[in-house]
Amino acid sequence: MAQATPLSRRRLLQLTGLGGTVLAGAALGGCWSAAPAGQLWSARGELPQAWRKALPRAWSARLFETPQALLEASSEPQTLPALLSLGDGWAGQLRRERLLPFEAAAMLEQLAPIAAAPSRLFGPADAAPLAFPWAFGTWVVLLRNRADLLRRRDEGWNLLLDPSLRRRLVLPGSPRLLIELALRQLELPSGDPAALASPRLPSQLRALHGQALSLDDRGGLNLLLSGEADAAVVTSQRAIPLLQRDPRLSAFLPASGSPLWWQLLLRLAPDPPTAAPPPPLEWLRDGLQQPLLDRLLAAGWLPPLPAATLEPVLARWPKRLSTLLLPPAAVLARCNSLPPFSPAERERWQQLWDQALAAA
C-alpha cells in the first residue's frame, strides 16, 4: 500500500501539479534543430485521440509516455516539433525565447476572457500570445461509495479532514496544490503574502497532509478504484470519464472553487524561424465545434469558450457532470490559475512547506 511520506527538498523542486505550475522552473538546454515540418508532440492522455487523429494529412503526431519524456526529447539536437501540447506547469519549463508567437488571432478571440492570461503564459497584458489554451478545468473531490460524504459537500474542502478519511484519501503530488487547498480550507486568499504568513496555515497543511494515503493523483487513482481509498482530489478531466462508466463514483467541486489547470498548444522556434509551419487553424477550429466538441467533452476536456457557447451543448448532459465540466459562473469566479513563481515566491512557498512538514 502506498504511504504518504514527506517530500525532500530536491523532490519538491521537481514536482508539478497536473495543469498547475511547478514550484521550481527548469530551463531546457541543448541545441535545437528542425524536425519534419508539421509534427505535433503530446504525452499519453493529454490530447484526445479523436482530435489527434483529425490532424491534417501534412501533419504527423508523436506520443510520449510522460510530459517529462516529451520535454527531454525536445532538447535533443536532432528533433524539434512544430507544436507541443503541454499542461501549463510543464509549459512553464520551456524558455520563452524557444517559443514562437501563436499566430491564431481569430481563434484566440473566440475564447473566453479567462483564457487570455494563459495564452500569454501569464506574461504582461500587452505580450504576444505564446500558447493556444484549448482546454481547462478544476480540481474536484472524487468519492467511491461514500454517499454520506457527498451529502455533506457543503463543507467544501474541509470535508477532506473528516476522520473517516484518515489514510483513505489520495491527494495530488504537488506541494503547491496542497498549499492552495489548505488556504481554501482556511478561507484565505491565494497569492496573498499575508495569507501565507498566517500562523494557522502550517498546522492546516500538516493536518491535510496527514490524511493522505498517497500523494499521487495519477497512480493513486488505482487505490480509489480498488477500494483502498475512499476519496481522491483529481482534475475534472480525469474525473469525468470515470464518472460516466463507474456507478460507485461521485464527485463535487466545492463552492469555494479550486485552482485551475490548463492544457496548451505551443509553437517551437526552428532555425531558421522562417521554416516554422503556421498552426493548423482548421484543425483548431474543429476542436471547438461539433461533432468533435462532444467527443472532447466526453473525455473531460473543456475548451475555454464563452459560457453562452458551451451551455447549449452541455444542456444535454446530466447536471452532475455538466456542472463539473463548466462550474456555475459564481464558482468559476472563485477559481484561480497558477502563474509561475518568481524566485522570491518560490522560496517563500518552499519555506512554508518545510515548516509544515518539519513538525509532522
Question: Can you characterise this structure?
Answer:
The chain has 18 helices and ten strands. The chain has 360 residues and is an alpha/beta fold. The protein has two domains: 19-136 and 260-330, 3-Layer(aba) Sandwich (D-Maltodextrin-Binding Protein, domain 2); 137-259 and 340-358, Periplasmic binding protein-like II (D-Maltodextrin-Binding Protein, domain 2). α2 (49-53) links the parallel β1 and β2. α8 (175-185) packs across α10 and α10 (201-210) packs across α18. The longest helix is centred in the C-terminal third of the chain and has 16 residues, at 343-358. Mean pLDDT is 88; it is low at 1-36.
Order of helices and strands: HEHEHEHEHHEHEHHHEHEHEEHHHHHH
**Overall mean pLDDT score?**
88
Can you identify the CATH superfamily of the largest domain?
A: Periplasmic binding protein-like II
- Which descriptor suits the 3D outline? globular
The major sheet is characterized as:
10 strands, mixed
Rg over CA atoms:
20 Å
CATH topology descriptor of the largest domain:
D-Maltodextrin-Binding Protein, domain 2
Class per helix and strand makeup = alpha/beta
From the N-terminal CA to the C-terminal CA, the straight-line distance is 20 Å
Number of continuous helical runs: 18
Number of domains: 2
